[in-house]
Design brief:
97 residues; alpha+beta; Hypothetical Cytosolic Protein, Chain: A; two-stranded antiparallel sheet; 2 helices; 5 strands; globular
Amino acid sequence: MLVLEIKEGKSCPVFVCDVCKEVIPSARQGVAVYKENIGQGELRTFYTVCARECHELMETHFENENNWGGWQPLEYVMHWLCENMKFKPLKRDPYEI
């Protein structure tokens, strides 16, 4: 799940594991788990989970669900999100208005 955490007085978006509820410290340490085989234009929910035990727990949980089991490293999801939002890195501090 994506949440805001206050660090040094600034709002910082961070991913939290949907299983253990701990902050995922880096994109390489998390995965997005989602439903596979959805139709064109259909929206799907994805869950962010730690790439360790929580990922395995989530896969086991959805094992009996129809079409569950897709996953991608969180760093790929972040890349695709930036592409889909047509995001280009800021050339300034986002906290400076």
